[in-house]
Structure formats: C-alpha cells, structure tokens
Amino acid sequence: MLHRLKVSVLLTSLLLVGGTSAPAQTFPTPNRSITIVVGFPAGGAHDIMGRALAQELTKELGTSVIIENRPGAGGAVSVQTVARAEPDGHTLLFNNLSELAVRQAAAKVPYDLDRDLVPISLVGVTPIVLVVHNSVPVQTLAEFKAFARSRPEAVIYGIPGVGTMQHFAGEALRVKLDVPMKPLTYRGGAPLANDLAGGHVTVGMSGLPPLLPLLQAGTVRLIATSSIERSKLTPDVASFAEAGVGGVDIANYVGLAAPKTTPTTVLQKLEAATLAACKSPTLEATFKHSVSSVIGSTAAEYKAFIDRERAQHRELIHVTNFKISE
Asked: Which of 53, 159, 182, 197 is deepest in the core (most CB within 10 A)?
C-alpha cells in the first residue's frame, strides 16, 4: 500500500512538471497563430517594418504570425495589451522601447517597462527627419531657423503621436534652435503624411517610410535628420549635428518584446527565430525600400541598448523640460 502511494505521488509530480513545461516545449502551439501588436496605425514606419518581420517569422516558426494594430497614447495602449496577455510567446510587442522609456520618464504612464516587458531583439532603425511642404521656402536647417523666427506665430509641426521619438526630436530642436514651435499630434505617420500631402500642415517631424511617395512626387522636402552623424540611408541630408544642433541623437529604433514572465525557453526560441529572420535578404530589401536598416541583436544586446538610450536621453529630457500631457 505504501509502495503504491509513493508511486502515485511520483506520477502526480511528473505530470505537474510536465504540465508547467509543456507550453515551452511545444511552442508555438500547433494550429495557433502568433500576434505581434504594433502601437501605431497601418501604413506608418512601425507597421511597415512589423509586417515585414511577421512574414519572415511565419517562415522561421512554422506558424502564422499576424499584425494587430493597437494605436493610442504614443504606444501605451499596445504595451498594456501585451503586458496583460498570456505570457506564452503568442502575443508580442513590436515597438520602440527607447521611445517608451522616454515616455515613462516624462509622463505618468500605466506601465513599467522593467516590470511588464522583456526584450527579445532590436530589429531595425529608420531615421527621424524634419520635413517641410514644398511651399515652405527653406532648404537647410539654418534657413528653417530664420523662417521660424520670422513667423508672427509659432510654427506648427506635425508628429505621429504624443511622446513619440519624433515629438521628442521636435522639442529638442525647438530648444536647441530657440525658435517658437508647437506640435500637432496625429495618430500615426500615415495620417501625418496625408495632411503634409494636402498642405494642411507644412512642417513635420516623422519617420521616413510614410513620406516616400511624397518625396518621390516632390511634395515635401527633407531638411535634416535628428542625429549626430549623417544617416547612411539619407546620405544627401545633413544631420542635426552637422547643421549646428548638438546634443541630439534620436532615431526610430524598433524591436520585439514579450510579456515579462514568458518562459525562458520560449524567449530563446523567439530570439533565435528573429535573428534568423533579420538575416533574410527579403527582410533587408523590404527595410531598405522603406529607407530603414535591419539590425538583429540578441536579447542581451537589446537590453544593454535600452539602458544606454535611457542614460543618454535623461539629460536631454532635463534640458528640454520634456513633459507629456494627454
């Protein structure tokens, strides 16, 4: 009797252990898709890069990987969606975590990056540019400064969301140039591009992908990129630093993250699949077509990158008194 009891206890223990490890061992679950949540509308820089990654991950993981756009509050809605999801690897976040870190430092937000998310890979980057409608008579940042100072009212510049890196770059430029500028918020890069095309807003701080048709048509003009070094993606466009605006190095980095308590084995499989996807010539070509670059980092490298970004932007947040109010 005692022997049968011991056997029963042992079998129960093995079943419990197997039950807790099964999701990691069978990931991805057969006949179940993986959802990547993007915090901005379709057509913007985040969405374009996210969809390209989803196509490659579908091949690498052998299951359907789909995009769900959850715009709102500069990406906060998407963070909450993923943070509350089952931590089994089937709901992921594709967003700019350094952007979200800036937002967390400058506003009250309903999330904490360290508590709610775990990085998987830094996937890519696209430059942030100051752009003007072709009706604005400026070609350089110096001319833009003179133009802004000559206006009887503050220059209105469009941004794809409150608290985005584009917003941060715009406010840094305002302070560094000492010119009157006020942001006009859109729900993503695509709606901003639409209004730039129609001349409803004549200045914008934006990622490049949604602007490409306007650039090709000559509707808008690039003035400068918000970086220290000239971007290899826009070799003919001066950086902020080259144009005399120092201390600003801001770009639109995007990466993949998961809910905090996702099992390590699942995270490792997602990391390996993402690294493989980032080596795909198809992904590289898609990013290049959208004036973006593939990076493809390990999870540890991505975490170190986020920590560096936080430290670098902390001083700029202080200097610009960057605060976010909805």
From this structure: 53
Give the three-class secondary structure for 18.
helix
Structure tokens at 134: 């072709």
First vs last Cα of the chain: how many Å apart?
68
> Could you give the CA distance from residue 118 to residue 168 in angstroms, rounded to a whole number?
24
For every one of its 326 residues, what pLDDT tens digit does the chain have, with 9 covering 90 and above? Answer: 434 444 444 434 434 444 443 444 589 999 899 999 998 788 877 888 899 999 999 999 999 999 999 987 767 899 999 999 999 999 999 988 888 888 888 888 889 999 999 999 999 998 899 999 999 999 999 999 999 999 999 999 999 888 889 999 999 999 999 999 999 999 888 899 999 999 999 999 998 888 989 999 999 999 999 988 888 888 899 999 999 898 888 998 999 999 999 999 999 999 999 999 999 999 999 998 888 899 999 999 999 999 888 888 888 898 888 988 75
pTM of the model: 0.82
Closest by alpha carbon to 161, among 247, 70, 91? 70
b/e burial code for range 275-285 (CB count within 10 A of at least 16 → b): bebbebeebbe
Question: Do 148 and 223 meet the contact criterion of CB atoms below 8 Å apart?
Answer: no
Structural domains of the chain ordered from first start: 33-126+252-320 (3.40.190.150), 128-225 (3.40.190.10)
Which stretch of DSSP H or E encloses residue 75? none
Say whether 259 sits in a helix, a strand or coil: strand
In the structure encoding, which two tokens stand for residue 102, read together? Answer: 């800036």
